[in-house]
Amino acid sequence: xxxxxxxxxxxVIALFVVTMMMWYHADDWVADSANTDMIIKVxxxxxxxxxxxxxxxxxxxxxxxxxxxxxALKPAVPQLPSSSNPFKRFAYVTILHGIDEGGGYKGxxxxxxxxxxxxxxxxSTADIIAMIGFTTAASHSEEISKDxxxxxxxxxxxxxxxxxxxxxxxxxxxxxxxxxxKVTPWKFTEYSSxxxxxxxVLPHKNMDCLFxxxxxxxxxxxxxxxxxxxxxxxxxxxxxxxxxxxARSRMMRKWNETLGWGTPITPNSLxxxxxxxxxxxxxxxxxxxxxxxxTHYFVLQHGRVQLFDSNLGYKFDKNFSSQxxxxxxxxxxxxxxxxxxxxxHYTGRNKPWLNIDSSRKDRALKYWIxxxxxxxxxxxxAALNAEKLKPxxxxxxxxx
Length: 400
What we know:
Shape: globular
Number of strands: 14
Order of helices and strands: HHEEEEHEHEHEEEEHHEEEHEH
CATH class of the largest domain: Alpha Beta
Strand order of the largest sheet: 6-5-4-7-10-9-11-12-13
Strand content: 15-25%
CATH architecture of the largest domain: Alpha-Beta Complex
Number of domains: 2
Helix content: 25-40%
Structural class: alpha/beta
């Protein structure tokens, strides 16, 4: 009875200390709860690392906790700070990867700054996050540091990306690894919903209304059954861990266009945007990357997702059961029929910073030029051609 009483007292004291620390440092603890560990010191010698939000650590059977010491460990990689406004529940997330001394990343850097500026101008109140990744561990020059500081000073929150592969065996990140890291927003559970946009997307309308979709949402692509250039994610740590596990497994094997991510595609089950052309095998654009992974995980397996075509929507539940959606009802708050009506996506070699020609009668290009020049940086759009800012990780990755 004496031992049980001692353990009970220690448990109560420890829980009280943790509660008070979490209350006092709420902004710091909430943001990093999924990435911070708690050390339990047992008998002054044994250390066990467990997630900070798993308080069952104090109820081990037959353990006499003579001393409990709670220590918050800093993650190995700097993680996302808490929202500057505790009442904000939404964030836009984009990715800036391939950062190295070659400087090709600067085109995306400039576009992220433009995204931030345009969203604020259009009335968005959501946080804006850039997921930062380096080509190699050695990519940390003074110029790179200044560029990253430029993002931070503009009000963009930073999240430093981990590696999916062992950097000792694969010191350089390639396009495949970068693309698969686009599943990271499911990790940001301090937000109720996230809009991911590629770093070559630029909104021309306030997209905040899309945060209220309340279900993982994607557009159907013209070259894929699911397009990841924009999506809405409902953060969920189980989904994040499941997606990362599949991503790591994918990078260890050669691609199979029949089995894809684990199962053949059922005939007449998936289609391309604006047509009834069926997807038949795992050879569509991005099938072996994030677009195929998200199709497999959400659409074909777990559900909790909706896809938007040009005039129809599809709601999927577990095991590929589905129902049609009326897009007028889905997007009533936005007064649109599709999210693609709210942004320009400069895909492939059509990125404005690769080919600035203000004489072209291209509405999307002129919008980008005007938006970029409004930033008043120490470089103008007219000077970008000379910079030769080609994507450092390439334009795409074949299914192989």
